[in-house]
Amino acid sequence: MDSIQIEQFSKELERLDRFESIIGTVLVNRNGLTITSRVPRSVNEKKIGALAATIFEAMETAIEELNEDIINITVEYDEYQLVVIGDTSQVILVALIEYNIDLGIILIEIEESLSIVQEIIKNDEIVNK
Hints:
Blueprint: H1 3-16, E1 22-29, E2 34-38, H2 45-63, E3 73-76, E4 80-86, E5 91-98, H3 104-127
Antiparallel strand pairs: 1-2, 1-5, 3-4, 4-5
């Protein structure tokens, strides 16, 4: 991924910052390596990315027999929720969200951000062919 793509990804994560209930976001590749992030200093983005990729891969393997796709995975901690969303593409979007909130609208926004990121990747692949 080039610097222009990463800048576009960063702008999309910045858009999610407008939602007060979103503590931070991390965009990682399928191996869990951070592409870009917007998290507080107290959050280790590398660990969150590796954890999210591992969780996502494990769930994909576990439900393979069901012929279903994972839409999102939510893990609840004492102080926040970790939402992991991805698909069969190269990237996984991770969001740290306040604990006691309604996830409905937030999940829609996170899914939209992932779609935008995927479109950026797709457009770059078309241009570079």
